[in-house]
Amino acid sequence: MKKRSNIFIPALIVLSVILCGLTAKEIRDITLNPKQEAGKVVYEKGTGSGEKEIIAVLSEVKVPASVLFCANCHGKEGEGKPEGGVSPSKLTWKSLTKNYGGKTTNGRQHPAYDVKSLKRAITMGIDPAGNQLSSVMPRYQMSLEDLTNLVEYIKVLGSNSETGLNDTTIHIGMLLPSPRKFPVLHKTMKEVVQAYFTETNLNGGIYNRQLKLHTNDISYDSDQPLEMINSLLDSKDFFAMTACFLSGQDKVLTKLANDKNIPMVGAFSEYPEGNSLQNRNVFFLYAGIKRQIDALIQHSVRQHSVKIAVVYTEEMQDISSIVEEQIMSNSKITLLKHIIGQSNDDHRQLVLELKKAEVELVFYLGPKNSGHALLSQAAAIEWTPRLMLLGAFSNIDVFSVPKAFDKNIFLSYPTWMTEFSQSGLSFYKQLSSKYALSPNYRNMQFAALSSAILLTNRLKEIGSSPSREKLISSLEHLFEYQTGLIPPVSFNVNRRLGSEKVFITNVDLQQNKLILVNTIDGKVI
Asked: Which of 70, 107, 199, 231 has the least C-beta neighbours within 10 A?
């Protein structure tokens, strides 16, 4: 697969990322032993460690336990999830073993559970007093090994066994651009998040737990073996991650975060998976390439048909295919595609061909030099089509192009200064002054800081006994949350894309400034 050129640096998307790691010594949380790990699988998935299938029996009907697994009703934390008039009991060991026993929903009491009576309840549906459990509680048929493992896991269920979390500290990971390729960007991004965490800790932290940020200067590219990336994330050293740059390994890292149940709060990607059916654990901030392309097309194509030329380099072929896909879904558009040559003769010939074809709009995906050469050649023959640029991917100096293109160049961005609030800017300025933050990559600092703010806000929301599941659930109920530095962010059980807004700007070459001309909102998925 061809590698992309480094033209994306000014954007919120970069080509390399860093995975963060901790040593076992740095995190003193409760870890599961092999029996508890196996029991967790039985509890959360209904599958055992042996060849014998676990069966759930409900009203004499037998089904695989993977259909009626414990966590489905009792919750991943064992807290019970009232639903449809049914109130499942709490399954935490503390609740089950209270010295005064327990009480059923119909008021009948029973002694405290022990290991023996709990196994009998699971397999026979009988409580410690010999009473039948509710008819909606399945009876399970499983091997003695699976049953033992399940009980061992229930003993620690809901007992703050979350990875990267202890009584004093919440360990947070961060994915960063390569310090070797982008040293200033790497330093800037790390410092702004660290400054915010330090400030949060000085103000009491999260229910008296301190936030500890961890990064590791391990960069990789698309050729790095999957096993290496997998082993880095497999260490499970952090409770959650924030301000994560996934570019170059988007699908791999998203899948691993989901497989390993690591929440990523505030991720940046060229191709965000905004639907929770494909992605549950990664919450993206911004619209990706497809949405920005679609917004540019919506803005450009109104009531009449139009001819569009997509001009691109070989390195940008992947993105040009996305442009083509989005364009071809619109019946009003006639599409032409051209790969850019290297010489002035190539540029001149291409401009002549496009003018002859009566092209009205050019989608340009290429380097700065070729872009400026094409525009100069076009101005020379008095041909000035509208030029469309993905703002996050273009490094053309739009203020040094021929004046003939005044008001004819349009760029798309996933955020804009209209989203800044006075309080948001004031907070950033105070933080910047106190911690001597770099003036570089200001918009990217806003994005990273917003990710960290979003994470800490949700951690405060879920209370003093946090869990990854509670964090994900809290994010799923977030609506129009404002950091004052990015567009309002919303998520729900199906949506994992915080903002689908795209801002279309026009280049005013007389005043040398970008003017916001349209804001296009995406649909809530």
From this structure: 107
